[in-house]
Amino acid sequence: MSFSTILGQDKTVKRLRALIETGRIPPAMIFHGAPGTGKFLTAVEFAKAVNCSHTAHRERPPAPPAPDENDLFAAAAAAPAPAPEPEPVKIHTDITDSCGACLSCLQAASGAHPDIRIVDTAFQAALLDEDESANLKIDTMRELTRWAQQKPMLSAWKIFIVRDAEALMPAAQNALLKTLEEPPPGTVIILTVSKKTSLLSTILSRSCMIEFGLLPRTAARTLLEAQGAAPDVAAALAALGGGSLEKAAEAGAFLKRVSGLRPGDPSRIFKFSAGLPRDSHKAREEVRTLLDLLLAKTRAAWRAADGPAKIRFTTLLRRTLDLRRMADRNVSYLLLLETALLESEKAGIKLEDLIRTD
Ligand SMILES: [Zn+2]
Predict the structure, then answer these.
(1) What is the rounded average pLDDT of the residues 205-234?
(2) How far, in Å, is the centroid of ligand 1 from the Cα of 110?
(3) Which of 22-26, 75-79, 177-181, 216-220 has the least mean pLDDT?
(4) What sign has the CA pseudo-torsion 127, 133, 134, 140?
(5) In CATH, which of 3.20.20.20, 3.40.50.300, 3.40.1190.20, 3.30.2160.10 is domain 3-56+89-212?
(6) Residue 243 backbone dihedrals phi, psi, to 5 degrees
(7) What is the DSSP letter of 136?
(8) Can you tell me the distance from the alpha carbon of 221 to that of 227, in angstroms, rounded to the nearest whole number?
(9) Is residue 295 classed as helix, strand or coil in its secondary structure?
């Protein structure tokens, strides 16, 4: 794994590699872009590249067994010389990318690098010994601050990746602020975020902003195929995802759920919405994606229609836009989804049409 695994973010990766080359790594960085555009994976690759020693790691040969004290002949013999430390082998790779073979890279690949820490809600649940919460709390940021004060254990830099930093509560952001203002030497904090507005202006102004654009369709398709999707499914999901692998994965889940429904079953819209994820945050995200798909289909139908159909699709377009706006507010997402699907079906756009790419 290296930057070569990051597709569709060439400009951004080029900028990150230039930072590594000059050695001027900003202590606070924000990786900003739509969900599913590779922010987190790029942050991990960046951390690996920054900490790579470009020196192949070779295991030291095992020490010979200690002589048996009862064996007089062995005890009398001279102790064998300790095995020499293997010569480090310098790997001539690009210094702006990870080599994959040094101790730091091997530790990072196993997810156990002591100086690269991923901070997210799953990590927080383990840290605080509690159920996973939707928010990142002040106690977690205090712990991060404490670690930031310690010296790196293996590499030159201590890198903290706070994943989906929109989950940081304002108090937690304030707890982090001091470390961002006066970062201990060799510390890098990366926040990945899809909504900049969820961060305090004081955090934004102290961080170096790294932007991630939507993925080109070819890159999304290649990545989906690499994840195991069949070429035709990958092509369809890449189109439905609109540049976001997260949206593509959600569309894939819709595809699966819709294909499990009996065409013509009058209760299939209710069966479909009953299959939303249990996690309310994820369910709301899925409803947003579905409404976006519905909007795209309605716009296309409106453009192609004339006469009474044009009027029908104009009404549906207005209505769907209203429902999409409501999805960002605290309105029952289940009700929104069912209303939108029932109204679109009445206007002639079926549930099955939403995931059709032709
Ligand atoms: Zn390396």
Answers:
(1) 94
(2) 13
(3) 75-79
(4) negative
(5) 3.40.50.300
(6) 95, 5
(7) B
(8) 10
(9) helix
From CA 32, how far away is CA 239, in angstroms rounded? Answer: 22
Question: What is the Cα–Cα distance from 345 to 146, expressed in whole angstroms?
Answer: 56
Among candidate residues 200, 203, 199, 214, the one with its CA nearest the CA of residue 246: 214
SS3 129: coil
Q: What pLDDT score was predicted for residue 86? A: 64
CA of 253 to the centre of ligand 1 (A): 37
Residues 40-60 have pLDDT tens digits of: 999 999 999 999 999 877 766
Q: Structure tokens of 303?
A: 């453009």
**CA 88 – ligand 1 centroid, Å:** 13
Task: Count CB-CB contacts under 10 A for residue 255.
Answer: 18
Residue 153 pLDDT > 60, yes or no?
A: yes
- Distance in Å, CA 21 to ligand 1 centroid: 15
Cα 349 from chain centroid (whole Å): 33
Domain boundaries, the chain: 3-56+89-212, 217-355
- Residue 53 Cα to ligand 1 middle (Å): 5
What does the pLDDT look like over 115-143, one tens digit per residue? 999 999 999 999 999 998 889 999 999 99
Q: How far is the CA of 350 from the centre of ligand 1 (A)?
A: 52
CA 185 to ligand 1 centroid distance, Å? 21
Cα(14) to centroid of ligand 1, in Å? 19
